[in-house]
């Protein structure tokens, strides 16, 4: 496989089958939004670009505001991201760098006009521009320093968040690295948009699945619940529009339809709309919300997690928009429902905030899951009613997520809570990749490096013989292939972000997967991992020549 990175304002591209294609032709490959199943081969994605000053600034906030799990070493996270991006390309995925695109689409003049409107012409000239009317590096740097100080005033340091006396050095280093990556004016404009203009820095921009989610052939624009994340959505919309995508499904945050239908299905209201006394009716939130991490598709079922971040009303809108297509093509839409999510403490909400943080399809009729969460989640089904006006019915299956999957003859691979919290489910399935496409990646010495993998505290489980080694040209990225599948014409590959989740890794290998371990330890500090970082646009098992 030959690879060429070419930045043309629309992302990075690879050329395959040893054939150099015109960029315009390659751009059309796997172009259409097309996510029919989480376990088809991944073909095209949007990635955020390396985390930057915005991620550093977010850590100055309390966890309830920043949504960060732990302190992130942003410089190391940038290296991890670059490796992950390169790895995606080497595994055959077309990647688009959202920051690269934004740096070329967010025009400095618009930013200047914004600040003139907010602060006045004199402020802009004195605090932002050089004598030629261009952004001045040192002045923008001072605005970033001022942002740090203003955040410390707004959110005073405490026992958990001591003041960082080295913040100027860190901010300067990150800004200068951005200037090398994007160019001076583009980098300065980008950092104004991500860190200075928003009330809170957009530190979660890294998690590129959450802002947009492709559902069958429809790109759904998220309505993020938390204020720090809401400005990300418009920026990602700019990115998708720059890539040529124009038709979106946008959630109406004031569209509180379906709650009567829901409460009747749950038995909280009778057909006349009166309370039955069986439980408290579900009340519509002030604003409906949907986040991309709360939806995946597997085995002809669209699963939407409704809980801490995604509301029932938003799921109802998605179904109503897509129900004719779902019915025509044989898809169900299932709500994986936690009706008590919003009453939980913040940290408990974070632990299971999206469906992809505690469960993940890993193959045909295969699901990796923190089972305790699955047992708590009710399954509701949307269905077109038989009435003349074709309203939407909600059906309470009476069972939980685990029961629902078992009835469909799934094999569930359980993982423990401590691994779920360390993103043991948040892997990214790359698909079935022919061995010949992997020839340059798999180490030559792999066949001589057979080990046995077991779970130390579960000696009754048989050890799995596997072959392992560092991938050529990728430093500490490793490939682990179970011995019983080594030498096949193709491998099902899962990319995992954390190498210490021993049960999760065992389950993946026991299910016949080859594992590529791409360390994303620092990138996970903000409550997300490989799956959260990957905005999927196209999956397909069909090879387009």
Automatic annotation (TrEMBL):
Domain of life of the source: Bacteria
GO biological process assignments: L-arginine deiminase pathway
An annotated Gene Ontology molecular function: arginine deiminase activity
Alphabetized Pfam families for the sequence: ADI
The name this protein goes by in its record: Arginine deiminase
Organism: Candidatus Roizmanbacteria bacterium GW2011_GWA2_36_23
């Amino acid at each position: 496989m030959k690879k060429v990175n070419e930045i043309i304002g629309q992302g990075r591209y690879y050329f395959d089958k040893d054939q150099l294609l015109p960029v315009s032709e390659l751009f059309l490959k796997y172009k259409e939004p097309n996510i029919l199943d989480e376990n088809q081969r991944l073909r095209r994605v949007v990635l955020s670009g390396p985390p930057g000053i915005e991620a550093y600034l977010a850590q100055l906030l309390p966890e309830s505001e920043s949504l960060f799990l732990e302190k992130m070493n942003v410089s190391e996270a940038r290296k991890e991201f670059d490796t992950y991006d390169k790895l995606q390309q080497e595994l055959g995925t077309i990647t688009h760098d959202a920051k690269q695109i934004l740096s070329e689409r967010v025009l400095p003049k618009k930013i200047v006009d914004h600040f003139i409107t907010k602060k006045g012409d004199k402020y802009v000239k004195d605090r932002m521009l050089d004598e030629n009317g261009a952004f001045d590096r040192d002045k923008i740097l001072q605005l970033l320093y001022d942002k740090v100080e203003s955040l410390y005033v707004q959110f005073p340091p405490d026992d958990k968040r001591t003041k960082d006396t080295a913040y100027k050095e860190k901010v300067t280093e990150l800004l200068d690295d951005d200037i090398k990556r994007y160019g001076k004016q583009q980098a300065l404009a980008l950092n104004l948009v991500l860190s200075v203009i928003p009330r809170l820095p957009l530190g979660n921009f890294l998690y590129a699945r959450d802002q947009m989610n492709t559902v069958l052939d429809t790109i759904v624009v998220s309505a993020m619940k938390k204020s720090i994340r809401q400005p990300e959505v418009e920026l990602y919309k700019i990115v998708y529009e720059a890539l040529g995508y124009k038709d979106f499904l946008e959630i109406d945050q004031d569209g509180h339809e379906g709650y009567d239908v829901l409460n009747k299905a749950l038995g909280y209201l009778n057909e006349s709309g009166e309370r039955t006394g069986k439980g408290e009716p579900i009340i519509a939130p002030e604003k409906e919300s949907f986040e991309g991490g709360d939806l995946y598709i597997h085995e002809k079922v669209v699963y939407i997690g409704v809980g801490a971040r995604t509301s029932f009303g938003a799921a109802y809108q998605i179904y109503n928009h897509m129900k004719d297509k779902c019915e025509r093509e044989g898809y169900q839409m299932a709500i994986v429902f936690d009706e008590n999510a919003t009453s939980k403490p913040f940290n408990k909400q974070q632990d299971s905030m999206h469906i992809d943080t505690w469960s993940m399809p890993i193959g045909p009729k295969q699901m990796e899951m923190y089972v305790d969460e699955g047992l708590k989640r009710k399954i509701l089904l949307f269905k077109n009613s038989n009435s003349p006006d074709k309203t939407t019915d909600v059906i309470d299956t009476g069972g939980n997520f685990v029961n629902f999957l078992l009835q469909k003859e799934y094999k569930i691979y359980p993982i423990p809570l401590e691994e779920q919290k360390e993103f043991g489910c948040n892997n990214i399935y790359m698909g079935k990749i022919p061995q010949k496409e992997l020839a340059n990646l798999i180490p030559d010495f792999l066949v001589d490096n057979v080990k046995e993998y077991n779970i130390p505290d579960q000696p009754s489980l048989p050890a799995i013989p596997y072959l392992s080694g560092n991938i050529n040209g990728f430093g500490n990225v490793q490939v682990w292939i179970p011995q019983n599948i080594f030498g096949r014409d193709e491998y099902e590959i899962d990319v995992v972000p954390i190498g210490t989740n021993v049960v999760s890794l065992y389950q993946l290998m026991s299910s016949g997967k080859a594992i590529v371990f791409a360390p994303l330890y620092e990138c996970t500090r903000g409550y997300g991992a490989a799956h959260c970082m990957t905005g999927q646009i196209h999956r397909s098992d069909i090879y387009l020549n």
